[in-house]
Design a protein that fits this description.
The protein is mostly helical. It is built from 7 helices and no strands.
């Protein structure tokens, strides 16, 4: 994997509105460490954060059925997001497919190359 490909993986975590601050910080630290002696340690920290932050699709579906989801997304959008999550699970999805979780999954899947 090239440095540019590694940077793109981390940048996706930064760009995702659904990524938490710690995940974004770990991604930025990794980008800053690319090509340095600290790259492997930063990669390990990024992967650890990705594994901590990724949500299972079943947990996402449970959340989207909650009153909190309605408060966050609104009464019109919450059911749409729920239907999307249920369809993702029906198509074999294991993890939430929001941009933050998708970035986390890509980073986890690339762990050996980082």
């Amino acid at each position: 994997m090239t440095i540019e490909e590694k940077k793109a993986l981390a940048q996706a975590a930064i760009d995702a509105g659904s990524s938490c601050a710690e995940f974004k910080a770990a991604a930025q630290n990794y980008i800053d460490a690319l090509g340095t002696s600290g790259e492997k340690a930063a990669a390990a920290a990024l992967v650890a954060e990705a594994k901590e932050d990724i949500n299972l699709i079943d947990d996402t579906i449970a959340f989207l059925k909650s009153e909190m989801a309605v408060k966050i997304f609104g009464a019109e959008l919450a059911p749409v997001k729920l239907a999307e999550a249920e369809a993702h699970k029906a198509n074999g999805g294991i993890y939430c497919d929001c941009p933050g979780c998708a970035a986390a999954e890509a980073i986890i899947n690339a762990e050996a190359e980082l």
